[in-house]
Prior knowledge:
This protein has helices spanning 2-16, 78-94, and strands at residues 22-30, 33-34, 39-44, 47-52, 58-64, 67-74, 131-133, 136-139, 142-144. It is α+β, with helices and mostly antiparallel strands. It is elongated and about 55 Å long.
Amino acid sequence: MRKRSLAAVLACVVMVGCGQTANVKGTVKYKGELLKGGSITAIAGNGTFADMIKEDGTYQLRGLRPGRVNFLVVSQDPKLMSEISEKLKKAKEGANPEKKDPRAPKIDLTNPKINLIPAKYADPTKELLAKDLVAGDNVYDIELKD
Length: 146
């Protein structure tokens, strides 16, 4: 009986890592230049994980299940996003909650002027940035192109 228990534990460790997780860090570049902001999302077997892309283009995610992970990247122009936020705030302050405010700004977040990278990198139905992660520490430097 004791040998079977030991064999089961060893099989667990070899086959699935018994709860081991993967950590990943790296940089994100677009057209050879480090992104200075945005977000990265990882869709792993144990959930969705996200981090902000730092000004030096780096990110770090912890606790992912090892295996195939799909990564998504979004980077929007901070100046334009700030302007949009202000417009929405002003429209909300002057809006009548009973009626649709005709002054409310029409905002298209798919506008290429807002998005600094192609929208395809934020599409979860595509696996453009999928990567196999192993238990422990991983490095994944992402290079985005048009």
